[in-house]
Structures are given as C-alpha cells and as structure tokens.
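Task: sequence design from structure.
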C-alpha cells in the first residue's frame, strides 16, 4: 500500500496543475488507496464535498460527486442519435462510469476493453457502480491494450465510446490518427464513435490537430461540450464521429433518472462558443 494503511485518516492537500501557476486542489480526509500498477500510479482519496476521487498518475479521472457530467455526455449523445444500437465497444473506462450509462439501454452486448486490470479492481472496491455492471450478462470485460484490440478484433459495433485518459502513458496511442483509421473496419453501416478530446481552454492545439486528421477519416466530425467541474477549466470537449449519422438526429428518448443530459442539452452541446468554434474552422 506504498506506506499508507487502507482507509488511513490523514489531512493532505492534493494539487493538480493545469498551467505552471494554476490548477485545482482538494483537501483529502482519507487516502483510501495508493499503489503503482504496471502502467501507472493509482490513487483513491476522499474529499468532504466530492466524495471518493480516482487519480491516475496524479490526474483526476472521476469523482463520486460530478462523474455524471462526463459519463452522461460521453454516452447519451450517441445513443440518442443512433436508430437502434445493439453492440457497443468501450475503450478505456475502467472506472465503469461509461459502462453504467450504456447499460441503461436495451443493448445486446457491451465489450469493455481496459488495459490496466488494477484500475478495474480498485474501482470495484471504491466505486459502487462498477461491480453490478460487470455482473450484467451483456457485459464482456477484456483486459487488453485498446489499440491492439482494434487491430486484431473481427467484431463490429454500432457505437464505440473512447474513454481515454490524457494522451500520455498507456492512453497515448488512443489519441493518434492510426487508431481512428483502424477503427473504421470495426464499424457497422450506421455506426457512431464518441471520444473525449480534452479541455477547450487548455488543450486547443491538440484538439485542432485531432480535428484535422479526423476530417480526413470521417464524413461527420462534430465537437460538443459539457461542464465537468473537476476537469481542467471546468469545461470539457468531446467529438461525435460517423459516416452516416448526423449529430443532431434524435431517434428516441434518453432513459429516466439522468442528472444532466436531456434532448435540450443534446442540441445545445453542439452549439460551440466562438473562441472554440473559431479554432476548429
């Protein structure tokens, strides 16, 4: 446990820098987990307001308090647009938040591909939504590199959700042109890919580069935004990709019980502010 006892009561300040002179901080009342996996440093801390927080290599991945912003907005825009999604692939997402949202729909199968089995184990212990999702008979868990899985699989999917972390370490290849090019052969005729692309404030250069190569691969490339309070800048960007489905098509209703997403949010999310829209032109 790297010198920390499980559930040890402590008083520490965690800081994540978004620029050399600014970022976000938490006062943690407990260090629930701290250990290196073969791929990254995994930590779980507890904060009075945000609850349990998952950190990978010192970067915030999810919190109990605000996870719904990110996970609902990565999943439901694609599902509201697709006429009848049956087969779903999730690349990354070992904390289970995306899987939780996907299983709200009457899909036939969901393949979750996560490179780090330790993230799965830690999330099962500290985030209550994952274990029931893994027990769902529609779920298939594959411990593998997402890039290699895409290169080797013979399966095709109606919706692919790329829930990658930052473009460093084990997630770096999930942000590259070859990865998206290889995904084309895993898609059905009416397929949609959705992926997180980073902060529209702090990651404009990487988003511009991604926009350029994605437009060479897909006919429909539409960026959209959502608040995520604990991510850099408090606002996050995603991209909707397809060759046949438009981002503002609405082919059904979202499930009940969502905390953020609804059809009005869906339409509004694709209306980009000028500072971001101008960078994508």
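Answer:
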């Amino acid at each position: 446990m790297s010198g920390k006892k499980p559930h040890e009561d402590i008083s520490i300040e965690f800081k994540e820098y978004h620029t050399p002179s600014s970022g976000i901080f938490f006062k943690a009342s407990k260090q629930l987990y701290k250990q290196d996996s073969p791929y990254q440093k995994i930590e779980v801390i507890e904060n009075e307001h945000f609850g349990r927080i998952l950190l990978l290599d010192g970067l915030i991945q999810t919190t109990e308090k605000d996870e719904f912003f990110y996970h609902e907005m990565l999943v439901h825009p694609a599902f509201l647009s697709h006429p009848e999604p049956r087969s779903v692939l999730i690349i990354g997402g070992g904390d289970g938040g995306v899987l939780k949202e996907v299983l709200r729909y009457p899909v036939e199968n969901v393949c979750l591909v996560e490179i780090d089995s330790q993230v799965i184990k830690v999330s099962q212990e500290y985030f209550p939504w994952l274990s029931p999702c893994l027990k769902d008979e529609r779920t298939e868990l594959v411990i593998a590199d997402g890039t290699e899985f895409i290169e080797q699989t013979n399966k095709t999917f109606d919706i692919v959700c790329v829930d990658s972390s930052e473009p460093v370490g084990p997630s770096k290849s999930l942000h590259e042109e070859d990865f998206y090019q290889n995904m084309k052969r895993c898609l059905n005729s009416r397929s949609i890919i959705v992926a997180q692309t980073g902060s529209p404030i702090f990651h404009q250069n990487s988003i511009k580069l991604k926009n350029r190569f994605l437009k060479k691969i897909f006919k429909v490339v539409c960026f959209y935004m959502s608040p995520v309070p604990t991510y850099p800048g408090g606002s996050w960007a995603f991209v909707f990709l397809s060759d046949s489905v438009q981002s503002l098509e609405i082919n059904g209703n979202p499930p009940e019980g969502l905390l953020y997403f609804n059809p009005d949010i869906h339409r509004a999310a694709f209306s980009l502010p000028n500072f971001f829209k101008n960078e994508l032109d």
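Confidence is low (pLDDT under 50) at residues 1-5.
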